């Protein structure tokens, strides 16, 4: 629609130029508009029709420089994940330290770190918003810009030229931002170590997302790093170069049991498909049906179909299987089983189903085993809370994360220095790059919308 | 679509006015040029009026052809646009 308007506007401009030529006015300021309008009309029409060629040319340049929009958007998302994850870690570390009397001094040092992380996160979000705008609205911007150029008497010419230049320059320039940041960052072992992270969701074998819980990493040298908290169904594990060379196994560490996942004895390049960088992995936990707030349900062997819902003080499980299986309920001591219903029939003696107790860091609990016959069955459990903790204390998670990060660096001072440099550079490079692109935009806009190049005689 | 119709309407009106004005300014130009005024500069105004009027007429005549040429070339590039309006004198 806009293109049609531009087309007719340029024809109108042409005929207005002709009209001015025909005015019985001596050659003066107004008369000079005649040839200008005519040449403007030709220019606008040429611009309208060559827009596709120009955009294709711009994309050729982008490809030649090595940029790519898909990779750029995932890079941005990964960096956002990493920064926000780090902000969460630092925030909880600060809160933890502020609780202890001596550590509160260290907590105040962490505050500016957190602000720096949030500032760099904000800069990345701005970049992401710009990227979405240019990616989705490229053609809208260009067509709108051409329409503005087509307005007679050059009223909106500079504005239209700026819009077109903005769209083109940012379309080519934004995907090159990661390379620009890499230029600014002095390459060092510590710098690259912060760029590597694995993140993603947790699902069970049926593809349903698990929204909580903890992960553990079993590393080559028999070291176990855990529990790493899963926040709202997403986990993030930064790793360093040493870990990148190892074969790791990710386990789902809840209720005193380490559930195997699809990541067993794999190296990170095998998981990610490439060495280093940010990559997204979906971790599939074997046997688990659901986990929430300290309660875990799993079954062995795997049923054909299962849906579990844990909410507050009710556990509802629906199972369908062709063979008989056992369903295990891992209930921490934070809850007490009030009633248990199998297929809506109350079980009189719940203690019969009791199968031992377990210890999960500082949380104790019990296991209940329910034998399920073939067919479709429902199990309902009603619980009451006892006031004890249902998940391990945060200090364990903090310790785990510290262990993970300690694989990457020499000392805490180097860590702070490096972190400050990375975050500072992040913020600065974003601002610098944007101003660079805007300056180029101005230059291109002057080229597109400057005084007419086609000079018609008189 | 209303904007497009408005612009098309304006184009037609502009061309009609342009043709009439072309005739008018050509006449005025010859009148001034041929008038028995001793002031040479005044006569040159007449001369410029005539020239501009002729240029105007030239561009009106040529304009359609140029637009047609541009659209023909752009058809090779894959753009399809409606034919430019060819407004006639009433």
Please name the defining characteristics of this protein.
heterodimer, A: 458 residues, alpha+beta, five-stranded antiparallel β-sheet, 11 helices, 19 strands, 49% helix, 25% strand, B: 90 residues, mainly alpha, 2 helices, elongated
Short note summarizing the structure:
The complex is a heterodimer of chains A (458) and B (90). Chain A is built from eleven helices and 19 strands.
Structure description:
The complex is a heterodimer of chains A (458) and B (90). Chain A is an alpha+beta fold. In chain A, 49% of the residues lie in helices and 25% in strands. Chain A has helices at 2-22, 33-65, 69-99, 104-150, 157-173, 177-184, 189-193, 241-245, 268-272, 394-406, 412-449; strands spanning 197-204, 214-218, 224-229, 234-238, 247-254, 257-260, 266-267, 278-280, 283-285, 288-292, 295-300, 305-311, 314-321, 325-332, 335-342, 345-346, 354-360, 363-372, 375-385. In chain A, helix 1 packs antiparallel against helix 2 and helix 3 packs across helix 10. The longest helix of chain B is centred in the middle third of the chain and has 37 residues, at 40-76. Chain B is elongated and about 60 Å long. The two termini of chain B are 25 Å apart.
